[in-house]
Each structure stands twice: as structure tokens, then as C-alpha cells.
Amino acid sequence: MVPIVNPRVVKLHEKDGDWGAAWLASNEAGSGAYRLIPSTYVPLEHVDMEKYDEHFLGWSDNPQPIKKIEWWPTQVTSTRVLALLNGSLDMTDSNLPVDLQPDRRARPF
Question: Is 29 exposed, middle or buried (0-12, 13-18, 19+ CB in 10 A)?
């Protein structure tokens, strides 16, 4: 995954042309609407994110935004699908193989 980061923050932590990769392995420099809660970050296992009140686009278009997001990255596709089906997960990335994507013709939403 390639996150979108604030280049000004990353460049401050660049070492030997690594584009800040070593620093980013345990820090965040996001530019999104949510920011990482560092105390909950376990690389490749878990991270919580909280609404960033100072986001440059503001929140006027969303009067009731989600305040906290728990993220449990799961690399095994079948585990992600089962978690969605049993309700222990509210969302996942869109990288589902075609054979595991819902057949929208069979069950319209």
C-alpha cells in the first residue's frame, strides 16, 4: 500500500535518500481526515485513527463524522471476507478477487 503523506514532514526525516521510509515505519505523516493514534500502532497488526479536526477540507459537509477508526490489516482474503460476513469488521479494502466479490445481480442493494 502506498499512503499519501505530507512531503514536508517526510523530507525532514529523510536519511540517505530513503524518502523517510525508516522514519515512516513507526511514525505518521498523513494528509488525510484521520490521524494515527501512535500508542495503538502495531505495524502490520493494528492501528487506531481519530478524526483530525484541523483537516484542510474541514468537516462542514459531514456534521456527524466517525470519530475513531480501528484498523486491523488482514492479508488473507478469506479471513477478511469472513470478518465482513460475521460482523466483526465494518469495511475492508477493495482488493477482493473477482470470485469473492458479491454478485450484485443476485441481491440488489
Answer: buried
